[in-house]
Write a structure and sequence with these properties.
The complex is a heterodimer.
Chain A: E1 2-11, E2 14-24, E3 29-34, H1 40-48, E4 55-60, E5 63-64, H2 70-77, E6 80-83, H3 95-106, H4 111-124, H5 140-152, E7 158-162, H6 170-187, E8 190-195, H7 198-204, E9 207-212, E10 215-220, H8 231-237, H9 241-254
Parallel strand pairs in A: 3-8, 3-9, 6-7, 7-8
Antiparallel strand pairs in A: 1-2, 1-4, 4-5, 9-10
Chain B: H1 2-17, H2 24-39, H3 43-64, H4 74-113, H5 116-122, H6 127-139, H7 142-163, H8 169-177, H9 182-208, H10 214-244
Helix pairs in contact in B: 1-6, 2-6, 3-4, 3-7, 4-7, 4-8, 4-9, 4-10, 6-9, 7-8, 9-10
Classes of the chains: A alpha/beta, B mainly alpha.
């Protein structure tokens, strides 16, 4: 479980995060949504320890990140998996080498044990035949799946995804969403996803945190988001005609 | 203030480079890769430039000796001194600042832009050690490149001298061997080690701490070349003053 309390982050005069408090539970897929510039990426990077907040605490299963020593922080980070927006695969390595990388760095497994694990996770993300391809030879969807495979290969406790669907067609985006949710359930990990994608919100948002101008404007789930009257949320989520109709249908169905 | 900040950050990076080392089995492959990219990949251009610049030094020296009282073997002597003392360690290092330096800055800078460094950081890896230390170790083989540059520079001078008809082979070899001071080689290699350190770390600093996108990677490469060259020239002066004067 990740617990965030009164998180503040500024860059110079720009106050980006203004006292965010929330909890991300184990075994659940949580989504952080909001308009561009609302502070989602900064929030995620604070969770990952890439940015240091000026005020507030983030605790991982009771361990407060800012109170850990440098080595303890590195140990904690080894328990995190991250899927970056642009996949961030290492261009000089093949897909199998990319996936094997965390194992080479943090385990004492033999090469055959590592290969078995790589085969397993690549099969899990439906890329059983892609071992020797270079990242540049893979499509956007494949790269995302490799990034997911790399993130889960070392059995992380926490999985973070920054806009995992950006630049993907709707069908591939759904595949990626389902894959992340299945993995979260399967490994019982804490998953936090930054997203703009309303399909993801509806499909896998077991918990949703809505950020607006650096504040937490709303918190709920994909069930309660249909019912909320919060103006900021409805303006954002139901900005398209399609989703307005979906909401209307949902309400009518419930009545 | 910005300069002071940059200098401070540079020295902190150097300190961090030696902290929390990456697992040896991984580090070993990174070092071999960097030896291949930075050292082996530079041999061709260094050999080509050294051979022909050695030839040019010889031709120009020979053409400027018009007094018949000056012995012909002076051409070989002048070529040896120019190549060993300045051309091989300093001139080649400036060229390497362009070739190797921009490669280091752009490769690390691209990793920064594409979030690959963030990915390493998230995994709990000491990214400065992972990225910069192998380059530093690989560049410790740089004196090997400079030895080749010295040899080929003198060889190029010999070829130009004989085929240009400026002096005989015997005269040239006599000049090359005349008044040889072994300390000059020591001086040249001390300079080379210092320049190797600069060539590995200054471009890494500009790549690692760059901000922005593809355009900034290009700008960082240019800035790294400028500052590496400036530092090489400056330290060349200081070391020469300290060791030879």
């Amino acid at each position: 479980m990740i617990e965030v309390k009164d998180l503040h982050k500024s860059f110079g005069d720009a106050h980006i995060l203004k006292g965010i408090s929330t909890t991300f539970e184990k075994g659940k897929t949580s989504l952080v949504i909001g308009q561009s510039g609302s502070g989602k990426t900064v929030f995620l990077k604070c969770l990952l320890g890439l940015f240091h907040p000026e005020k507030g605490t983030i605790s991982y299963d009771g361990k407060i990140y800012s109170e850990l020593s440098r080595d303890q922080k590195r140990e904690l980070r080894a328990e995190m998996g991250m899927v970056f927006q642009g996949s961030a695969l290492f261009d000089s390595m093949t897909i199998a080498q990319n996936v094997m990388f965390p194992l080479r760095m943090f385990t004492k497994q033999s090469k055959s044990e590592m290969m078995d694990r790589v085969d397993f996770v690549l099969k899990r993300v439906n890329l059983a035949d892609a071992h020797n391809k270079m990242p540049s030879e893979a499509s956007g969807g494949m790269q995302k799946r490799v990034a997911i495979a790399r993130a889960i290969v070392n059995k992380p406790k926490y999985l973070f995804c920054d806009e995992p669907n950006s630049g993907l067609d709707p069908k591939t985006a759904t595949v990626i969403d389902n894959l992340i949710q299945e993995i979260t359930d399967e490994y019982n990990i804490t998953t936090v996803i930054n997203s703009h994608d309303m399909n993801s919100v509806m499909e896998i948002g077991e918990k949703i945190v809505f950020l607006k101008d650096g504040y937490k404007a709303w918190e709920g789930s994909n069930e309660t988001i249909f019912k909320t009257d919060n103006e900021a949320v409805t303006n954002f989520v139901y900005s398209s005609e399609l989703f307005k109709k979906v909401r209307q249908m949902y309400i009518e169905e419930r009545q | 203030m910005t300069y002071l900040h940059n200098i401070g950050t540079y020295f902190l990076m150097i300190k961090e480079m030696f902290r929390k080392p990456t697992k040896w089995s991984v580090m070993k492959s990174l070092i071999f890769k960097d030896v291949d990219d930075l050292i082996m990949g530079s041999l061709g251009i260094v050999a080509f430039i050294s051979f022909f610049v050695g030839g040019v030094v010889t031709i120009q020296t020979a053409l400027n000796i018009s007094n018949p009282l000056i012995p012909k073997y002076l051409v070989g002597f002048a070529t040896r001194q120019s190549v060993i003392l300045e051309f091989a360690p300093t001139f080649i290092s400036i060229i390497m600042a362009g070739k190797v330096g921009s490669f280091i800055t752009s490769s690390i800078g691209t990793m920064r832009v594409t979030e690959q460094i963030d990915a390493l950081e998230v995994m709990g890896i000491n990214t400065i050690n992972y990225l910069v230390f192998p380059k530093f170790v690989a560049m410790m083989l740089y004196p090997f490149v400079i030895s080749i540059a010295m040899f080929l520079g003198i060889l190029g001078g010999m070829a130009a001298c004989i085929y240009g008809g400026f002096s005989t082979l015997e005269d040239y070899i006599t000049g090359v061997q005349m008044d040889f001071i072994p300390f000059h080689i020591t001086y040249a290699f001390i300079k080379t080690f210092v320049f190797a350190f600069l060539l590995a770390t200054i471009p890494s600093y500009y790549g690692y701490y760059m901000k922005g996108g593809a355009l900034e990677v290009g700008k960082a490469s240019t800035t790294s070349f400028v500052w590496t060259s400036v530092m090489i020239i400056l330290l060349n002066y200081i070391l020469t003053q300290l060791m030879l004067s």
